[in-house]
Design a protein that fits this description.
By secondary structure, the protein is an alpha+beta fold. It has two domains: about 190 residues, D-Maltodextrin-Binding Protein, domain 2; about 220 residues, 3-Layer(aba) Sandwich (D-Maltodextrin-Binding Protein, domain 2), CATH 3.40.190. The chain is built from 18 helices and ten strands. The chain has a five-stranded mixed sheet with strand order 2-1-3-10-6. A three-stranded antiparallel sheet has the order 8-7-9. Strands 4-5 form a two-stranded antiparallel sheet. Strand 1, helix 2 and strand 2 form a beta-alpha-beta unit. Helix 1 crosses helix 2. The chain is globular.
Length: about 425
Amino acid sequence: MRLRHLLSGVAMLAASAGAAPAATITVATVNNSDMIIMQRLSTKWEQATGNKINWVVLEENVLRQRVTTDIATKGGQFDVITIGSYETPIWGKQKWLMPLDDFAASYDYNDIFKNVRDALSTDGKLYAVPFYAESSFTFYRKDLFDAAGLKMPDHPTYDQVAQFADKLTDKSKEQYGICLRGKPGWGENMAFIDPLVNTFGGRWFDMKWNPQLDTPEWHKALTYYVDIMHRDGPPGATGNGHNENRALFATGHCAMWIDATSAAGYIYNKSNSQVYDKTAFTAAPVEVTPHGAGWFWAWALAVPSTSKQAKAAKEFLAWSTSKDYVKLVGETDGWTVAPPGTRASTYDNPAYIKAAPFAETVKNAILAADITQPTKDPVPYKGIQYVAIPEFQAMGTQVGQLVSAALAGQMSVDAALKQAQAAVKSTMEQAGYIQ
């Protein structure tokens, strides 16, 4: 009944639009599991509306490059793009995106968590609608912890994580104490490194935009990361991003994994995961300060200003980020994989709460993440695992490549941070932040 109701509602929406001719929209998205589900279920929207979707599904770093290039050059390749809370306010301010505050009342904007709406808005206008939102927390194998006589605290420190990882690593069994992102990219390895630096007391810039990368806090954080990954991480870690580590954890190779809360649905889904009944979770680790220890991110859908099929694109967004879409995923694919972190109604749904033991922890982590106070010391920017300025995308990726080189043993931590400091300073001087 629910599916028939959803499809009939879409059909009536299309009919009320005056029986416009069918459109083909091109959607660029990331190859995350949630978006793969969206791609498969979108055939129901196509059937109900007569519209068609041309899908461009890309690895995360490639998606960012393709979408950024297209929108900055007004290439017009895409009608819908998958972007995040970093790009949306910047691109919205540039008028590169269409406002999305004109959906029907049934869409219920107020059902979307306010901090998620705010992160996707600028000057009071919403420029992308959230598909899912996430913070970060610690997945761990409760069976391995129990067998070793270890107890994971509710709020672990990174020192404790290192002790646990040392005790749970057994490389002869391809069992690694910890899996962390190593693939270079501002949204890949730096999505973990930035919160790590934050909680070690570091920051990207002081209040005058002077780079702070060659500091004791960055040195301690990056040395910790390189050391623990060499001792207790999997081989080939510089090639592992979110998806690769998720696969390692789901197949039983990681005792701990610090990453996106949105992955919980995948790990707890027995059709995907070999450890769905052996996994527990706790908060992201803290070291010197809790500020910025857990990140905040929203993967969202937006319509570029260059779209020639804006009407159909907006109709697709209204469908794919609606309350009914969340229910559709829950009822077809299982409630553990329903898009998390965006709508209050999801967390008011008894079926979701019953199926997803992580629900309240994820919700609380997302609501607690404060992009306006990401560090121990004051900073002139917003963002926990990014710096919300246009220059950060290139800078973050450049620093991510240096971090990856340090992890690979191609250079020392000291050399990597000295190069990072010099490169970021040069960029900030050229951009006029530093006089």
